[in-house]
Design a protein that fits this description.
The protein has about 280 residues and is an alpha/beta fold. It has 14 helices and 9 strands. Helix 3 packs across helix 4, helix 5 runs parallel beside helix 7 and helix 11 crosses helix 13. The chain binds ligand C2E and calcium ion (3 copies). One calcium ion (CA) binds next to loops.
Length: about 280
């Protein structure tokens, strides 16, 4: 079975999780891929649920191997985190996304909001804030066009540090979203302490909301929690019109998902934005 799947992402998913040697090989490939520019960033638009108005995009990392296969980020990002490679890869994503912001500003979207995922290892790194400031300054954009996404579990792992770094981030004018919200069991009091701007409801809740009453009750509670804290609530993984309407009815402000657009290359994003404003 291994030989059959060699090189495909299935091969990676079945074999890489357990075997240390295979993981090492994957990491070696990732390192080479990074050095040889086989990592790139795609963008998935985000919209206002009520009006359909486009508000920005999330930057998502892609790795295309030398053989031309795509390895899913869920598989290589954990490796990059463990090995420390995420520090340089994360900076690459950040700077690429900032360049794209610059481009969107030039195209006439002054409020375009670019969301960038950051790992705990990046957050913990003593140079993280300097890296952010340098990117903004070098590329010549404002903090308000940039949003960082940190996962809920990450925010709960090291609250002291996270609170401190959040304050520094906010000082740069950058906003922050809590990603995969609802999966990390954070308490209300915990959340209140975190100075964030947006809650991003995990795809699992969006799916469940449609399939059962219990699911929609939970989705309602998660949305209410965010609204109650005065935060903007965005749902990810919206695939159908019914889901959009349901989430809108539940009080969700914004959305992202295949219903609106798939992650796409920079030039496609520019076209997409232009179509939206026509
Ligand atoms: P995430 O941050 O939760 O990103 C959302 C994922 O949902 C993306 O998967 C996106 O392609 C997918 N998605 C969006 N809309 C839909 C939909 O309507 N239906 C379905 N089924 N899926 C949808 P992707 O790109 O494979 O990324 C997976 C994860 O990898 C991300 O989850 C994020 O945790 C991580 N990741 C991606 N890029 C980066 C990065 O630059 N840095 C870090 N630290 N993590 C990243
Ligand atoms: Ca995200
Ligand atoms: Ca997410
Ligand atoms: Ca997710």
């Amino acid at each position: 079975a291994k030989a059959q799947h060699r090189g495909s992402s299935q091969y990676f998913s079945s074999a890489m999780g357990t075997d240390a040697r295979e993981r090492f090989k994957l990491l070696k490939g990732l390192r080479a891929g990074f050095e040889e520019n086989r990592l790139f960033v795609v963008y998935q638009p985000q919209v206002e649920l009520e009006s359909g108005r486009s508000i920005g995009a999330e930057a998502l990392l892609r790795w295309r191997t030398e053989e031309g296969n795509f390895v899913p980020p869920d598989q290589f990002i954990p490796l990059a985190e463990k090995s420390g490679l995420i520090i340089s890869i994360g900076e690459f994503v950040l700077r690429t996304a900032c360049h794209q912001v610059k481009r969107m500003l030039e195209l006439g979207y002054p409020d375009f909001r670019m969301c960038v995922n950051v790992s705990l290892a990046q957050f913990r790194h003593p140079d993280f804030i300097a890296t952010l400031q340098r990117a903004l300054r070098d590329i010549g954009i404002n903090g308000h066009n940039l949003e960082l996404e940190i996962t809920e579990s990450m925010a709960m792992e090291d609250t002291e540090l996270v609170m401190h770094v959040l304050a520094e981030i906010k000082r740069c004018g950058i906003t922050v979203a809590i990603d995969d919200f609802g999966t990390g069991f954070s308490s209300l009091s915990h959340l209140r302490q975190l100075d964030v701007d947006r809650l991003k409801i995990d795809r699992a809740f969006v799916r469940e909301a449609q399939s059962s009453t219990a699911g929609s009750t939970i989705a309602q509670m998660v949305i209410n929690l965010g609204r109650g804290l005065g935060l903007t609530v965005i749902a990810e993984g919206i695939e159908g019109e019914e889901q959009r309407q349901q989430l809108l009815a539940l009080g969700c402000h914004e959305g992202q998902g295949y219903l609106f657009a798939r992650p796409m290359a920079a030039d496609q994003l520019e076209q997409w934005m232009e179509q939206q404003t026509q």
